[in-house]
Amino acid sequence: MIRESINQLVEEITRSCSQDDIFQAKKDFQKISGEIFEDDKSFESRMGCFLEWYTFDRPSPESSSTPLQRYLQKQAIPPENRELAEAISEGNHGLFIAKKIKNDHVVVVDVMDNGKFRVLEDQGSILFNSDDLFEGRLIPYKGQYYFTDNFCYHPKPTEGFILSKIKDLRTKEKEALAKEKRLQKEILSPQKNLKKTNAKIEKLNEKLAAATKEKKIQSLKEDIEKLENQKMQLESQISDIANQLTQLRTETIEGEHRQNRFNLIRKLSYMSLKWERSRQIDVRDIYQD
């Protein structure tokens, strides 16, 4: 099964990682996820979630690349391992609701992005109940979707609280996405004008090459110089907008937004852990700000 292959890949990748780095990463992980003890019922699954995060998502403080990314940079990787590792890099760690549970698959909704997925799973009736809300990692592989081995389940009465936190998160994300859309639209005009300006310069250069009269040559050179100045201004404008887009995408959309989602998922995981340890407490007293 693919989950066995993923677990083997995690083991292979982490073997080459520094134990000190793994130890520090675990401390960072547990700062918001809560400390995990061996007698916790979900100990193995939570440790599995940590190892997945460490292997697939956590950038090294030294190289700013994840263990998975460093693994993919190697040359001598079996083709099947490379294909699986690349699929994992395209995966989605998020929160899902189980909508349909069949013998060979489950249908889930990604509550962070509202996507619906048909996931191959022959143990769906064991892993999920209808309308279960859970943390999972979805992997697209060879035209199908699969979950990894590790889940964190949230009790039904917490759904309203969780969805409200996701709504707050998405509201903040939409501000940056709207800005991205504005910048994408804003860059079109100078790009169009630059294309026209380049075409004009090309035509004038053709005329200049054929010109023989000094007065005509001087006039063409002056016109070309003006257009070259316009070209420089347009290129500068395009470069400025492109830099804004890059910064917005890398620092905010791919950086801050991803970290905010991770923080929310981990905080909810900690609430789930506290509920697991304290069944006498009303779950709504645990899942709160």
Summarize the structure.
The chain has 289 residues and is α+β, with helices and mostly antiparallel strands. Helices cover 62% and strands 13% of the residues.
Q: In CATH, what is the class of the largest domain?
A: Mainly Beta
Total beta strands: 6
Radius of gyration: 27 Å
CATH architecture call of the largest domain: Beta Barrel
Mean pLDDT: 94
Which spans have pLDDT < 50 for at least 5 consecutive residues? Answer: none
What is the strand content?
Answer: 5-15%
CATH topology of the largest domain: OB fold (Dihydrolipoamide Acetyltransferase, E2P)
Which word captures the global form?
Answer: elongated
Helix content: 55-70%
Written as H for each helix and E for each strand, in order along the chain, the element string is HHHHHEEEHEEEHHH
How many domain units?
Answer: 2
Tell me about the largest β-sheet.
6 strands, antiparallel
* Helix-strand makeup class: alpha+beta
CATH superfamily of the largest domain: Nucleic acid-binding proteins
Could you tell me how far the N terminus lies from the C terminus, measured between alpha carbons in angstroms?
A: 40 Å
Q: Number of helical segments? A: 9
